[in-house]
Amino acid sequence: MARIAIAHERWTDIAGSEQVTQQLTKTWSETSVHVPFAKKSLIPEDLRDSFHISPLQVAYQLIRQRTYAPLLPLVPPAMQWGSLRQAHDVDAVVVSHHAFALAAVGAAQAINKPSVAYVHSPARWAWDARFRQEENRSKAGKAALAVLSARARANETRWAPHVTSIVGNSSAVVKRIEQHWNREAQVVHPPVDTEFFHPDEAIEKGDYFISVGRLVPYKQVPLGVAAAVAAGVRLVVVGDGRDMDRARAFAGPNVEFKGRLPGDEMRDLIRGARALLMPGEEDFGIVPVEAMACGTPVIALGKGGALDTVKPGISGELFSGDGEKEVIANLAEVLKNFDDSRFNTSTLRNWAEGFSEAAFREKMAEVVDAVV
User: Fold this and answer.
1) pTM
2) Cα 116 to Cα 371: distance, rounded to the nearest angstrom
3) Which residues, 6 or more positions from 309, have their beta carbon under 8 angstroms from its beta carbon?
4) 33-73 residue pLDDT tens
5) Phi, psi dihedrals of residue 113, rounded to the nearest 5°
6) Does domain 3-191+356-371 bear CATH number 3.40.50.720?
7) Is the pLDDT of residue 178 over 80?
8) Backbone angle region of 65, left / alpha / beta, with phi > 0 → left and psi within -120 to 50 → alpha
9) How far apart are CA 50 and CA 59, in angstroms?
10) N or C terminus of the chain with fewer C-beta within 10 Å?
């Protein structure tokens, strides 16, 4: 069994990329996790002994963990010169990359080990000016993001040619890797906890649609709210974030905001929904597959990761749209005409099983075995 060092961008939230890293640690019996800084309270108990945190943690503590943005330009040197440089006994380095973690490839080269980059995406905000425009609306924020974007592009351009093998989390991400990095990559979809997310026959379908996740600009939750109002259907919004005020501004009496909920409450609301909405472009989108695993179809913008997971008539419906008005109008049309009878719980469940944690571990083991 191979011994693997895992380099992860940061451990400041528990989201899809952290789920990926946790499953990577379960793929091999001997693993270590290397991060530049972390909220230690979020490190799972069973991983604490295998975590290595760089001296950049001191700076993160000094700013009281309020934000990590100012530290991002320091992630590459922390990755190159940190604990990975001492990991001479490993067989390979697996990098969980968003924007700056790819610099860990430099450490892999220094210890003469092959590397595999699991790419959640080449930094969309770095390569896509339109994405940056929507992500930050203040002049100061745009200026800061422009500087950070230049550094992220330089970091990816510097290290992408030296990765032994590259994996993208969706077909859309693989295309971006080919476009921005001029490298071939293969798809391994992220792991979905299909054991926790499963149907419950005791919960009947309600007369509402649902949105679940962080309210941040690229997810476009406010457009889903506006479409529900236009269609005259009920929408339950689960989650919180900096786009909350904008979402509330679009809302009517048929929209209910639940905020953040415990996992089991959120799961039951998904089980009872007619469909889950995904109005923004995701790199992959774990939450939609969690909904499918619960027997709930997904209505998604036909871009990005949704093209891998949402199959019309099988796991949900796709709609098109480029500008905000078009997205709202087209989604509202789908909501008004949504036919619940087209979808079957067992079919949805079987489709979701193809994205299970076990499937992810098996595929990643094959990728790493090929480079070791």
Assistant:
1) 0.91
2) 8
3) 189, 284, 285, 288, 289, 292, 298, 300, 315, 355
4) 999 999 999 999 999 999 999 999 999 999 888 888 889 89
5) -120, 150
6) no
7) yes
8) left
9) 22
10) N
